[in-house]
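agent> Task received from the user: take the single chain below, predict its 3D structure, and emit structure tokens. No templates, no multimer pairing.
agent> Plan: (1) validate residues, (2) run structure prediction, (3) serialize to tokens, (4) report one or two observations.
agent> Step 1 OK, no nonstandard residues flagged.
tool_call: predict_structure(input=
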Amino acid sequence: MRTLTLPGGARAAVVAAEWHDAFGVVTSGRVQLELRDGEPGPVLGPDAGFWLSGTGVRALRNPGRRTARVRVFTPGAVTRQSAHPVRQLPDDGDDMNSTKDTEIVAGPASGQPSRTRRLRGLAGTGLIATLAAMVTTTLAAALARGAGVDFEIPDGGETIPVPGIAVVTGVFSVVGVVIAVALLRWSARPADRFVWTTVALTALSLVPPLISGANAATITALLGLHLVAAAVMIPVLARSLRTRTD
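)
tool_result: status=success, residues=246
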């Protein structure tokens, strides 16, 4: 019997000879199965049992921050060599398979970027998306202005300039990037939490135009600009978060 330890973000390749007739049980944390084509497979929680022989699974990965452990039971107690560092634990007597318990600690996935690189990569993606959102909303506002939308707000008699729309889009997009970076740093499910948070904030952002007292054309245009910016930012950052937590 052996214990496979996967620190947060670690990946352990599945060697067919080591998993032949072996039965694994997740004892703590979460373990994601990586399929033959590299696509993410199901995520197994504590007490989940599985066989890997003949399944086509090529690796086990820890998708979260918390250390995951898998208890591996092998009939016949055949000791096999591993490419990972192995530490022999003290022999506490006979276990259920009459074998010694070895702990295999998997290191970070090969080529997996460090936390700093992941955060910087996400921030870079977010800034590019921010520029794209600013350009998109500016063009949309210019088209609306050309179609006769005055963007006049009755309170104070002010008219929203097209460059002002670009600035507001940029400010709120940067806020979205900051939220994404924070969730990648501290959340175990950053992509899901980011989508929930930003969708809720987008819904709240639709309230001011509705109560502004502007004419119907201006309200419709402002609502559309909010949704356009969200449609640019949210999918890009959510996809980037999923990529960096696989």
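agent> Step 4: summary for the user.
The first strand starts at residue 2 and ends at 6.
agent> Done.
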